[in-house]
Amino acid sequence: MRKPLIICDFDGTITKNDNIISIMKTFAPEEWHALKDAVLSKDLSIREGVGSMFKLLSSGLREDITAYILKQAEIRAGFQEFVSFLSGCGLPFYVVSGGMDFFVYPLLEGIVEKERIYCNQADFFGDSISVKWPYPCDDQCQNECGCCKPSIIRKLQGPDDFIVMIGDSVTDVEAAKRADLCIARDYLLKECEDLQLRHAAFEDFYDVKRALLGVKEVEEWMQEKSAGRSWPK
Question: By Cβ atoms counted within 10 A, which residue in 2, 80, 90, 96 is the most buried?
Fold first, then answer.
């Protein structure tokens, strides 16, 4: 029997808005638009594009940017209940985000334990904001992902795990290709359709829960849990 492993994006998935895009719209000069378009067209890698966008911002904006994000970010409906549901079922859940630590950690505080969050790190010690990449691509990925979601999945998964990827954007495409099921919205939903990946659509985390409960592998897991069998974490 395959054990479900749930991997979830943050920006635009857990939160309603993409927080990096919100930061750029509010604080960055116009040059950020060309960088964003180059990432979406895949002319620039995610690592190069996102790194270059943050270099447009002065480190002196740290307090203003942090206050802005923590004020305007909105968690998508049903997320906290969804995390509690997974915990009660013994289903492993990780947030794997191309976002930055200074807003990902505080927005998830009290909902997801820090050790279950993978994200990038913003460095405010120079004149402009630079990005540290603690989770680079492994030797099986050459896409310069920044926070390499496929590499993290390879690190986390067991040999028989059933991988579920929840996401919305270009940063989730390579992870979706590795997943057994992708629960998607927006850009990623279209990519799943074009690539003919096994997928379901969502708008909130009540939709995500319904999609999971309709999957044979999850149903089998629930039946095993209700029968009192234990599984390794």
Answer: 96
Q: Which two tokens stand for residue 231?
A: 């599984």
If you search the block for the tokens 């049903």, which residue do you land on?
A: 78
Mean pLDDT across 182-205: 97
Tokens of 202: 């969502």
Q: Could you give the domains of the chain?
A: 4-226 (3.40.50.1000)
Alpha-carbon distance 165 to 199, whole Å?
Answer: 9
What does DSSP say about strands 199-201 and 181-184: parallel, antiparallel, or unpaired? parallel
Long-range contacts of range 58-66, CB-CB < 8 Å, 24 or more positions apart? 58/127, 58/128, 58/129, 59/124, 59/125, 59/126, 59/127, 59/128, 59/129, 61/27, 61/129, 62/102, 62/124, 62/129, 64/27, 65/23, 65/27, 66/102, 66/103
For the segment 95-108, what is each residue's pLDDT rounded down to a tens digit?
A: 999 999 999 999 99
Q: Which residue, chain included where needed, has tokens 């270059």?
A: 52
- DSSP notation for 62-104: HHHHHHHHHHH--BPTTHHHHHHHHHHHT--EEEEEEEEHHHH
222 burial type by CB count under 10 A (0-12 exposed, 13-18 middle, 19+ buried): middle
For 118, counting Cβ atoms within 10 Å of its Cβ (0-12 exposed, 13-18 middle, 19+ buried), the class is buried
Query: Which pLDDT tens digit goes with each residue over 57-93?
Result: 999 999 999 999 999 999 999 999 999 999 988 899 9
